[in-house]
Amino acid sequence: MDSPATARHGWRLPRHELAILLATAAVYVLTGWADPNHTYFANWAESRDIILRNTALLGIIALGSAVVIIAGGIDLSAGSMVAFSATTCALVLTLCAAPDDRRLVTVGPGGIAAAIAAALLAGLLVGTLHAWLITTIRLPPFVATLATLVGLRSFARALCLFVTKQRWGSESQQINVNTPFFVWLKEHNVWIMTATFIALALLTWLILSRTVLGRHLYALGGNEQAARLSGIRTDNVKWFAYCFGSLTAALAGIFLMADSSVAQPGNLARGYELNAIAAAVVGGCSLQGGAGTVPGTVLGALFLRVVIDAVSKLIKASADVYEGMIVGIIVALAVTCTQFGRFGQGGRSLFPGIRGLAAIPAIAIPLGLLATMAAANVDLLAGRTALFGGVVGAGVLVALAAVRHLQGRRGP
Amino acid sequence: MTPIVSFRGVGKRFPGVTALDDVSFDLAPGDCHAICGENGAGKSTLMKLLSGVITDYEGQILVRGVPARFRDTRDAEAAGIAIIHQELNLVDQLSATANIFLGRERRTARGFLDDESMEREAARLLRELECPIDPRTSAGALRVGDRQLLEIAKALSLRSDVLIMDEPTSALTEGEVARLERVIARLRGRGVTILYISHKMNEVFQLADRITVLRDGRVVTTVERPATSPREITAWMVGREIADHDFRSRGPRGPKVLEVRRLTLPRPGRTQLNHLTDVSLELHAGEVLGIAGLMGAGRTELLEAIFGAAEPIWTGDILLDGSPVRFAHPAEAVAAGIAMVTEDRKRLGLFPDLDVAANVSLCGLHAAARGGLLSRSREDHLVEGMIRDIGVKTPGPHAAITSLSGGNQQKCILGRWLLTKPRILLLDDPTRGIDVGAKAELYQLIDRLCQDGLAVILTSSELPELLVLADRILVLAEGRITARFTHGEATEQKIVEAATGSQAPR
Question: A2 vs B403: CB contact, 8 Å cut-off?
Answer without folding.
Answer: yes
